[in-house]
């Protein structure tokens, strides 16, 4: 059993997180329930920041909010001194409602709409990470119409592929994201940006993938970028003031996952950058990174109630819970693996294996295969670990299942930050027929 953050087994044999008994928590708030260990989020944010402070270089740590977005999470990230990476108008609107400083918001995405970019410009965000030529034209038009200027980074594909799952590897040349570094697109984008009266080109953005357990990919991305910086300086009179190396830092989901300490990622990236800056006799660029999963992933736990069981002798023992792919899509989408325990019987010997099935009407709605547990009973509370990233943010209403609530736990205190959806919420936007429709 591997317990993250403040998690431990209390004197009652129950899983406790943030000083709160999860069994009592499930009774009070119901299940499924997303639980966040705020102390662990604070610790991770501080580790990234301290790593940069140790290197004595200018930096920004921007929370990649696609991992988990809600008003309270943006407010917590602001309290922790982080910037914000948003990828949609909805995330931007949530940040606005949270009251965070707009100048600390960076807007990503490969197909930002006119409406989204207008919201970004009007709200005075700090930076747009421009992804393509179409977006450059849109942003130019919008800034001109509103008499505004905008700091921008150009997202590039450096041709570096992280050692990760194909579906979440985004830095290679064949990608829907960014300007290609090797075919002249980046040079053209730099020229257009430098000629613009509304766009202030700060630098370059690169993201090589997700759930990365080594530093070599980041080092290679830096090396690839610096191969071109000398060319940009000589031919285009452009030296990046900012290099954003994205995120993708891995976490431990199951045995065999071996993430590095934040300082190792930061140290390797900054050391190679310092060497190149000295070699090229240029000022050290400001480094931006965008951790998301590594800030909130293993700080999150989902609590479920055990329902039906199906034992197929000699084949498999299925254990069904009251959630599934409606609150954790990653196993179905990525074949992602998770670990878990019975929160109400955490000290009992796990001498049987159960495959954890969700309640959606899909044979692929399986959360965990062959999870060691004690003999499970109806109404037991199953805790699935490391669901803090891409759990609630990917939650959906398939089968018209309401999305779970979210609570923050810290120092024995519980704060409800997202309410449980009710059935009425599921039909709130439905418009009933007022007359018979003829086909």
TrEMBL record:
UniProt KW Amino-acid biosynthesis keyword: yes
Catalytically driven reaction(s): meso-2,6-diaminopimelate + H(+) = L-lysine + CO2
Residues annotated as catalytic: 361
Transcription as UniProt keyword: no
Cofactor(s) named in the record: pyridoxal 5'-phosphate
Family: Belongs to the Orn/Lys/Arg decarboxylase class-II family. LysA subfamily.
Protein name per UniProt: Diaminopimelate decarboxylase
Originating organism: Alkalicoccobacillus porphyridii
Lineage: Bacteria, Bacillati, Bacillota, Bacilli, Bacillales
Gene: lysA
């Amino acid at each position: 059993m591997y317990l993250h953050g403040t998690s431990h087994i209390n004197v009652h044999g129950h899983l406790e997180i943030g000083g709160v008994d999860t069994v009592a928590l499930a009774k009070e708030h119901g299940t499924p329930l997303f639980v966040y260990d705020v102390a662990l989020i604070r610790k991770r944010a501080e580790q990234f920041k301290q790593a940069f402070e140790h290197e004595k270089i200018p930096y920004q740590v921007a929370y990649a909010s696609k991992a988990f977005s809600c008003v309270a999470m943006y407010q917590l990230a602001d309290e922790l001194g982080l910037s914000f990476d948003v990828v949609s108008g909805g995330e931007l609107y949530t940040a606005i409602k949270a009251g965070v400083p707009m100048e600390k918001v960076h807007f990503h995405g490969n197909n930002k709409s006119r409406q989204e970019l207008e919201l970004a410009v009007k709200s005075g965000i700090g930076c747009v990470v421009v992804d393509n030529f179409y977006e450059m034209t849109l942003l130019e038009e919008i800034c001109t119409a509103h008499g505004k200027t905008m700091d921008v980074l150009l997202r590039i594909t450096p041709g570096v592929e992280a050692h990760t799952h194909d579906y979440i590897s985004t830095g290679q040349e064949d990608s829907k994201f960014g300007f290609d570094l090797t075919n002249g697109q980046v040079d053209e984008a730099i020229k257009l940006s430098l000629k613009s009266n509304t766009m202030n080109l700060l630098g370059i953005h690169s993201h090589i993938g997700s759930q990365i357990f080594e530093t070599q990919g980041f080092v290679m991305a830096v090396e690839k970028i610096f191969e071109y910086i000398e060319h940009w300086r000589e031919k285009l009179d452009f030296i990046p003031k900012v290099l954003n190396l994205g995120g993708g830092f891995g976490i431990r989901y199951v045995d065999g996952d071996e993430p590095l300490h934040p300082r190792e990622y930061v140290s390797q990236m900054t050391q190679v950058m310092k060497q190149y800056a000295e070699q090229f006799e240029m000022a050290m660029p400001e480094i931006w990174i965008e951790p998301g999963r590594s800030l909130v992933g293993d700080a999150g736990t989902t609590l479920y109630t055990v329902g039906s069981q199906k034992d197929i002798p000699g084949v498999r023992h299925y254990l069904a819970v009251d959630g599934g792919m409606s609150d954790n899509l990653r196993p179905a989408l990525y074949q992602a693996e998770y670990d878990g325990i019975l929160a109400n019987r955490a000290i009992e010997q796990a001498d049987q294996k159960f495959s954890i099935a969700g309640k959606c009407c899909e044979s692929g709605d399986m959360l965990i295969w062959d999870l060691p547990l004690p003999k499970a009973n109806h109404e037991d509370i199953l805790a699935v670990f490391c669901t803090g990233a891409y759990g609630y943010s990917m939650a959906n209403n398939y089968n018209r299942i309401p999305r779970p609530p979210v609570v923050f736990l810290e120092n024995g205190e519980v704060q409800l930050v997202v309410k449980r959806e009710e059935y009425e919420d599921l039909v709130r936007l439905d418009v009933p027929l007022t007359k018979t429709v003829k086909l």
